[in-house]
Design brief:
Number of domains of chain B: 1
CATH topology of the largest domain in chain A: Rossmann fold
Order of helices and strands of chain B: HEEEHEHHEHEHHEHHHEEHHHHHHH
Number of domains of chain A: 2
Radius of gyration of chain A: 19 Å
Largest sheet of chain A: 5 strands, parallel
Number of strands of chain A: 5
Shape of chain B: globular
Largest sheet of chain B: 7 strands, parallel
Largest interface: A-B, 28 and 34 residues
Structural class of chain B: alpha/beta
Distance between the termini of chain B: 41 Å
CATH architecture of the largest domain in chain A: 3-Layer(aba) Sandwich
Strand order of the largest sheet of chain A: 2-1-3-4-5
CATH class of the largest domain in chain A: Alpha Beta
Oligomer: heterodimer
Helix content of chain A: 40-55%
Distance between the termini of chain A: 30 Å
Number of helices of chain B: 17
Number of strands of chain B: 9
Number of helices of chain A: 9
Strand content of chain B: 5-15%
Chain lengths: ~220, ~475
């Protein structure tokens, strides 16, 4: 297995560095942080490490989660491992003029305080190479408008858990459109459905965090 | 009319080292050592299981322009529910009104709905003899902002005002699903980080419960209503739902459930007298420790959320609830009426078993227990003998923090042992996480001060405000 593959494997296993105790069978062995440094020392381009080890590893992690082979904590260990590698290559990526593949603004809509699902979406999107602007919980339409103006190319993600707050997704989308903002909007959360997304003219609906990456990629033309 | 809390005066000021129910065969539905007397002619936990119906609005925005419609929906629901309760001859009915966030943020709104429900229950009591009680549950809106202000600010003021106004408007019991510590727990939960979970439940949640319930009990006394109880819903039910969706290990959800016992117990130490909240699946532990009656939900709450505890949840229930259901039309009737009918039939069976004596009751209880217990760790920890055994160990500890540590440690060992003995079946992923959680536990400080110090400077430092918990 070459170094790129070894890093990818360590991302998948969620092994950050030689000090990390998890997973127990890898404790004491080099992890993503150590291996990425080795790769840099071997003059492997940072963009190759990013795409073929870190993002590729996280894609497999997402697939494993969707297949019921990983729990969220497994994914988060992987995300943490990925992040430790990212910290090393980020300065180099800037000099290589490598950009994030897109920006996503996310928030739980007004009146709703639930954010576990939204936070998982943020984590998956960041793992997928996106820049994520998180507006938090109880987000009024004005905040979505403000963010859409600031990030005109961003996808906007709205979340709601309650049947009494899901209507605020409709109101927020209408407010965006009334202000002449045409950012694509995706929705999610226990109360949402594809049918509801169609009804409120959202551009997409995601059933879970793992699917959000594919949905966003599809909307920006990076996936079929 | 006096409520029984005034007679009890001070139930327990500290946790006794002895359980009120120490024999698993005495932990069953319908009977609690400390029953609660209600205003409209009945007593909870005195030999009969009663239905507790809860309902919520269909898809609607709550604001000034829809308020008239909102009121008419609640009026219609309570009328239909009472009518069906009378037709099915239920011995009594408990109605829970869980306020929605705008109804707590505008306390007058919650009080207005409380008044509608209370007046309707009065009418049906006087006209048709329907015995009833109204539990009102304001929302813990302090969680609206992060990090939350737990003891100050407009949201806190409105939450306590909501208790006051609802008590004045006709509530018979006050409850809340409090959220102190949730701001840390949410992140700790998805990371399966036991140190964060224990900090949240054993320190933050405990301190907030002590602060909150002292005040809710005072409000209850001032308005002659029952300070009923709280629930670990924000923690353990979140875990249960995430486990159900395959997001976190079920073993972790089971551990968190037992760990919530200690924070939920604080309400009763502060003077709450039950019945506990329906979604508090830790209720049977509370019943064993304190003797108060409990409300539970199981298969009848599938309308609100799925679970693996459908039958076993009713094994020690004194009230049997549906959690909540939207007021939508089904083939037979509106959903709250359908839910009520299901609850009443379940209660009939339990009450018939009770009527037939102890042997019959235990047989029926054991069927409910055994039908679920081996299929999921979250069900397994609700077996009566396990409840008694774990509760006994928990209450031997001297502080809420040490009690929480004990709850976690003993549950981890119990689940490992149950898996080894093949009493529960855990897959490879679950067993892997059981190992990881046990490794994590070994590194958690035995001293509360050290964990607080660690957390004030650790990864959760920006999630909570220490001063809001007096730490």
């Amino acid at each position: 297995m070459n170094l790129i593959e070894v890093i990818k494997e360590n991302v998948i296993r969620g092994h950050t560095d030689s000090n990390a105790k998890y997973p127990p069978d890898l404790a004491g062995k080099p992890g993503v942080k150590d291996l990425v440094q080795n790769a840099i020392d071997e003059m492997i381009p940072a963009s190759q490490i990013l795409n073929e080890s870190l993002i590729a590893g996280m894609e497999i992690v997402g697939s494993k989660f969707s297949a019921g082979e990983y729990f969220v904590p497994d994914m988060l260990l992987s995300a943490q491992a990925m992040k430790s590698g990212m910290q090393i290559i980020e300065p180099l990526l800037k000099s290589e003029d490598s950009k994030k593949i897109g920006t996503v603004v996310i928030g739980t809509v007004k009146g709703d305080m639930h954010d576990i699902g939204k936070n998982l979406v943020r984590m998956m999107l960041e793992g997928g190479g996106f820049e994520v602007i998180d507006l938090g919980i109880n987000t009024p339409p004005e905040k979505f408008i403000e963010a859409a103006k600031k990030y005109p190319d961003a996808i906007i993600g709205m979340s709601a858990l309650l049947t009494t707050t899901m209507e605020n997704m409709r109101i927020s989308i209408e407010a965006l459109r009334a202000n002449g903002l045409n950012n694509k909007v995706i929705i999610g959360g226990a109360a949402a459905s594809q049918k509801f997304a169609d009804e409120i003219h959202a551009d997409g609906f995601t059933r879970d965090a793992a699917q959000s990456v594919q949905l966003v990629k599809r909307l920006i033309g990076l996936a079929a | 009319m006096l409520h029984c809390w005034q007679n009890i005066f001070k139930m327990i000021s500290t946790v006794e080292k002895k359980l009120i129910i120490s024999n698993p065969d005495e932990l069953f539905f319908g009977l609690a050592p400390k029953p609660v007397k209600c205003q409209r002619g009945f007593e909870i936990g005195n030999g009969v299981v009663y239905p507790e119906i809860n309902f919520t609005l269909p898809q609607i925005i709550i604001n000034e322009s829809t308020w008239k419609e909102v009121k008419s929906i609640y009026t219609e629901i309570i009328g239909e529910v009472c009518k069906r309760a009378i037709e099915l001859k239920t011995p009594a009915l408990v109605v829970e009104f869980e306020l929605l966030p705008p109804m707590t943020m505008n306390p007058e709104w919650g009080a207005e709905i409380t008044k509608i429900l209370s007046e309707n229950l009065d009418v049906f009591y006087k006209k048709s003899g329907l015995k009833s009680a109204l539990r009102v549950t304001p929302v813990d809106i302090r969680d609206t902002n992060r990090p939350p202000l737990m003891r100050s600010g407009e949201l806190t003021v409105n939450m306590f005002r909501s208790f006051e106004l609802c008590a004045q408007a006709g509530a018979d019991m006050l409850s809340i699903e409090s959220t102190g510590g949730k701001e840390v727990h949410d992140d700790a939960l998805v990371n399966a980080d036991l140190s964060g979970i224990i900090f949240s439940l054993g320190i933050l949640a405990v301190k907030d419960m002590q602060y909150l319930w002292e005040r809710v009990v005072d409000i209850s006394k001032n308005h002659n209503v029952i300070p009923a109880g709280d629930t670990g819903c924000a923690f353990a039910n979140t875990a249960m739902i995430l486990a159900d969706k395959g997001m976190i290990p079920k073993t972790l959800a089971a551990v968190i459930r037992v760990a919530t016992v200690v924070r939920s117990l604080q309400a009763y130490l502060a003077g709450a007298i039950g019945p506990s909240k329906d979604c508090a699946y830790e209720g049977p532990y509370i019943k064993a420790i304190t003797g108060i009656p409990i409300s539970m939900e199981g298969k009848t709450s599938a309308c609100a959320h799925l679970s693996y505890l459908g039958n076993i949840a009713s094994a020690a229930a004194d009230l049997w609830s549906n959690e909540s259901v939207q007021n939508v039309k089904l083939l037979s009737a509106y959903a709250p009426v359908v839910s009520l009918e299901q609850l009443i039939y379940d209660c009939r069976l339990m009450n018939l078993a009770l009527k037939n004596g102890n042997e019959f009751t235990l047989k029926y209880r054991n069927l409910m227990v055994e039908s679920d217990a081996g299929l999921d760790p979250q069900a397994y920890i609700l077996k009566p003998e396990i409840i008694i055994s774990l509760s006994q160990k928990i209450i031997q500890e001297d502080s809420p923090y040490k009690m929480t540590l004990c709850a976690v440690d003993e549950t981890l060992k119990l689940l490992r042992d149950a898996s080894d003995k093949k009493e529960i079946k855990l897959n490879e992923m679950e067993l892997r996480w059981l190992d990881i959680l046990s490794m994590q536990f070994d590194e958690i400080p035995g001293d509360e001060i050290n964990l607080i110090k660690k957390m004030k400077n650790g990864i959760y430092a920006d999630k909570f405000l220490p001063a809001e918990y007096d730490i």
